[in-house]
Amino acid sequence: MSKVFFTSDLHFSHANIIKFCPAFRPQYVDEMDEYLISQWNSVVSPEDTVYNLGDVSFAHDIGRVEAVLRRLNGTHHLIYGNHDALIRQHAPRLLNTPKHDGLPLLASAQDYLLLKLPDSKQKMVLFHYPIHEWDGCHKGWYHLHGHIHDRIAPVRGRVLNVGWDLHGRLLEASDIERFLSALPKVSHFGDDDDKAWLPSSPEQAAADIRAILKKHNLQ
């Protein structure tokens, strides 16, 4: 039976990521690239699907990017990250070039994806960045993201960083359920004290908003 996986921020060909997030990365770039490919292919078969939430490679040569994509098993869907400009530029080519298993280098590439897996009760909002509120958050829909590497976003609700540097592995759909299914839904209108005010004028509202923003950023 085919499986579905999620990951983000693999950062192939990026030397500095080894210094920033060394926990699940070998010491040298070439070694790191080979390790990430082997880890991917050790769990992903050609029949499986991977949703990659961005920042694939720091290579400046699209040929190097292609060489990596060509070796990765499975149907590979990309959610663009902030370091995927080269892939975005060459997307038509990557979407129409086959790799070793006959599948395209990328099956799709987009900025945002609303996903419903057949075996999941909840829809998933896939976006590279963590967002405070997402479509269906008050219904219990999941939000999967990357971008912040080995950190957990201070966001309420069923939200999960699927980044490589946090988990050290690709996550299966069952992992997502285990992390998120028991978490509470987000209230549609919120219950923060910051909302419990009735400004007397637009000027007073502006002053209150500045005070709240200052408080949040000094915590």
Automatic annotation (TrEMBL):
Per its UniProt entry, which superkingdom is the organism in?
Bacteria
InterPro entries hit by this protein: Metallo-depent_PP-like (IPR029052)
Its protein name is Phosphoesterase
Q: What organism does this protein naturally occur in?
A: Conchiformibius steedae
Organism lineage string: Bacteria, Pseudomonadati, Pseudomonadota, Betaproteobacteria, Neisseriales
